[in-house]
């Protein structure tokens, strides 16, 4: 129920709710076997798939969906990582050891393999895939926040806040979290592309799909069987994934340059 509400709000925000379909070149769910595997032309700019569905319309429908899934995963990773990382860095001792050993356990395994295993455990539903991605994604942010917390927790403004009997909640959010976020934001911008790439790989493998809703990864997977005659079916969704990931890499790289000039170590 909760996921349905969140999904509905995000669909409205990103414009992929029902009324938005009318703005697409063609209905992304309309079968027309007469034009199955139709090559790109003026009517179907990127061609059609085996069912005669317009590839461009299905890609335009899928891309915002992939975007909000990456936003959910990265923001959840930042929040959970911030919570555990700051607590570990600030409290230290046994609590720090326990949290860091848990993060080591997650980071020691290949992320994709771990996501696939957790997705299967969660019955390969879309919500299960998102939950699996969040579980795998938070440890790296915990490491970031712990390192930043160790750097700033003994600075004068934090010590002054402690002497002023500031509540732990205010100390956590207003002093530790806010002052640790800059390098994390730069990495998170880069990480959106990583999430989309991982999610597209899962869709390529058929994990987390909700037919007939299109996914870039599943479109590329289905198109492999039509190569080389129906090359457009696999090539254009694959190119879309590549362009999106490269775009986030460039944005993240630029943000890292900006942040590195702001932080004085």
UniProtKB/TrEMBL annotation:
GO biological process: transmembrane transport
GO CC aspect terms: plasma membrane
Alphabetized Pfam families for the sequence: BPD_transp_1 (PF00528)
Record bears the keyword Transcription: no
Positions of the ABC transmembrane type-1 domain: 63-252
Record SUPFAM superfamilies: MetI-like (SSF161098)
Keywords for this protein: Cell membrane, Membrane, Transmembrane, Transmembrane helix, Transport
Record field: transmembrane: 67-90, 102-122, 128-145, 230-251
Subcellular location(s) of the protein: Cell membrane
Its membrane topology: Multi-pass membrane protein
PROSITE patterns recorded: ABC_TM1
CDD domains in the cross-refs: TM_PBP2
Family: Belongs to the binding-protein-dependent transport system permease family.
Name of the featured protein: Probable dipeptide transport system permease protein dppC
